Amino acid sequence: MPEGIVEGKTLLYDRTIRAVTSEIDTDVVEVYDAKGAYLAPGFVDIHIHGSGGADTMDATEEALSTIARILPGTGTTAFVATTMTMSYERIVAALEAIRRYETKVGEATLLGAHLEGPFLNPTRSGAQDPSHIVPPDTHLVSSYADIVKLVTLAPEVEGAEAFVKTVRERFPHIVLSIGHSEASYAQASEAFAWGVRHVTHLFNAMSPYRHREPGIVGACFDDESTTCDIIADGVHLHSHHLRLIKRMKAEKTILITDAIRAGCMKAGRYDLGGRTVRVAESRAVLPDGTIAGSVVKMNEAVRRYRDETDATLCEAVYAASTAPAALLGLSRKGRIAIGCDADMVIFDEDLGIIRTVIGGECVYEE
């Protein structure tokens, strides 16, 4: 609950949460005994490329459905399908597929699109293909403003200032985020003043945090209103950095998976944005060793964040549910409160998923 862990209660719901009470209504249709497990708001993943062998850039209903069907088993009840830096035609095809898609019963809710590029800095492209990186252009965003929820860009590149200010004015619902960027501390701070209000996978694919030039990380730490997301998979960040971020950003921290099509799959070779990725021992890399997304599950990220920082279970769950929902302006998701969507997850002490409910329907059970 928003106020902390509440014990010995009964939660009543249909499609929405109706009440939290000490009594069981005899007129209810079904009673489920959680047997001492935890019930929490469903997780919301704002940065996920794929899972179960499917990827957003496949640009098909089948691919999006595959991702949406697998995520409830990780406690995720809603997600933002994230694109890669590929050709303009491939990105448009992915956005068209997202626009057409209708979430089905039994699936995590597809909330919209996250454009991770193509407006990035080639020097910090990471697993993104630098040959398709282009200057910021509002046309792509304006054409799909109905589904685009978040845009990751490098604010130091030519045209970024005009792009940010135009998008903030015309499409205030779209979250603008720094990522894959070489911005200095001053440039990042200036970008926050323009209207950028988030940082994509803090510490990764960005200017380093140095003693004489704190870069994007330092600017993020100094700006109290800016949120950031992190990949708590034991690969992208040392536990020291998890603890540092927890201390500096507290409730402004959001957990993401950045999962690729290899998510919830076996080790092997996979495609990511037209590039070959090798997955072994929970690490996904390009042939040159560059980290290429993640294969972490959201419930695993929540557990790691709790165990490797001083975060309470409530704080860890908040970072995976309430915080991302709030960033996207989703007042009915990410909370156990009367009137909110009945998107809920039941898990054990080790964050093993026991049962997932979306819109009042049980969509996953161990």
What does this molecule look like?
The structure is a single chain. The protein is α/β, with parallel strands linked by helices and 366 residues long. It has one domain (41-334): Metal-dependent hydrolases (TIM Barrel, Alpha-Beta Barrel). It is built from ten helices and 19 strands. The chain has an eight-stranded parallel β-sheet. Strands 3-17-18-19 form a four-stranded antiparallel β-sheet, with no helix packed on it. It has a three-stranded antiparallel β-sheet with strand order 14-15-16, with no helix packed on it. Helix 3 (138-143) links the parallel strand 8 and strand 9 (148-153). It is globular, with a radius of gyration of 20 Å. The model has no long low-confidence stretch (mean pLDDT 96).
Descriptors for this entry?
alpha/beta, 24% strand, 366 residues, 10 helices, TIM Barrel
Topology:
Blueprint: E1 10-13, E2 17-21, E3 38-41, E4 43-48, E5 50-51, E6 54-55, H1 61-70, E7 76-82, H2 88-100, E8 109-116, H3 138-143, E9 148-153, H4 160-170, E10 175-178, H5 185-194, E11 198-199, H6 215-222, E12 227-231, H7 239-249, E13 253-256, E14 268-272, E15 275-280, E16 283-285, H8 298-308, H9 313-320, H10 322-327, E17 344-347, E18 353-358, E19 361-365
Helix pairs in contact: 5-6, 8-9
